[in-house]
Amino acid sequence: MTEHILLSVDMLISANQAIFHLTFTFWVGTNTDNDPEIDAVRFGKQGPGGLKLAGSGTDGTDAAKQVMINKTAKMLRTKGNYVEASGGMAHVMIKYKKVPFVSDIEDIKKMLPGKDVKYIGEHPNGKYPGYDGWYERTLGGKKHMKIILGKPNGVRVKNA
């Protein structure tokens, strides 16, 4: 397995490439097989707490998915790295990887300057006991429940 820090991105991205090139300043890709293509990629940018992971992708193979999960968990245990997570990402990182998280509403707001957030605390469906940093915010006109996972700089983090 080879890991590459990508200084420029020459791969085809199915979204607007110009936005990706201008917005995301951190890219890491991994090859999990014998071909020369990158099989898993993670990207992000600098945020108020350090490196904010923004997205990832794989070629769909189990090997690439597992490498991405493990790499993401390792990054989230490193001071200065964090992600605003929901859905499957939050589920895997909390249930299987038990990564740290931010629970204080004022600290959450520091990581999301200018964003309107509604603090929830514990997951309303009783999922993920001990992870009490859930909040809601509107993205694209729809409400989303999220949690900040990782160890961002300048805020208190909790371990489950």
Describe the protein.
By secondary structure, this protein is of the alpha+beta class. The protein is 24% helix and 32% strand. Strands 1-2-3-4-5-8-7-6 form an eight-stranded mixed sheet, sandwiched between helices. β3 and β4 form a beta hairpin. Residues 1-20 have low confidence and may be disordered.
Short note summarizing the structure:
The chain is an alpha+beta fold and 160 residues long.
User: Based on CA inertia axes, which overall geometry fits?
Assistant: globular
**Share in β-strands:** 25-35%
Structural class: alpha+beta
Termini separation comes to 31 Å
* Rg, nearest Å: 16 Å
- SSE ordering: EHEEEHEHHEEE
Average pLDDT number? 87
Low-confidence stretches: 1-20
What is the name of the CATH topology?
Aminopeptidase
Write a concise keyword list for the protein shown above.
disordered N terminus; Aminopeptidase; single chain; 160 residues; eight-stranded mixed beta sheet; alpha+beta; 8 strands
Topology:
Elements (H helix, E strand, L loop, with lengths): L1 E4 L11 H7 L2 E6 L8 E8 L2 E9 L3 H15 L4 E5 L1 H9 L9 H7 L6 E4 L12 E6 L2 E9 L10
Parallel strand pairs: 4-5
Antiparallel strand pairs: 1-2, 2-3, 3-4, 5-8, 6-7, 7-8
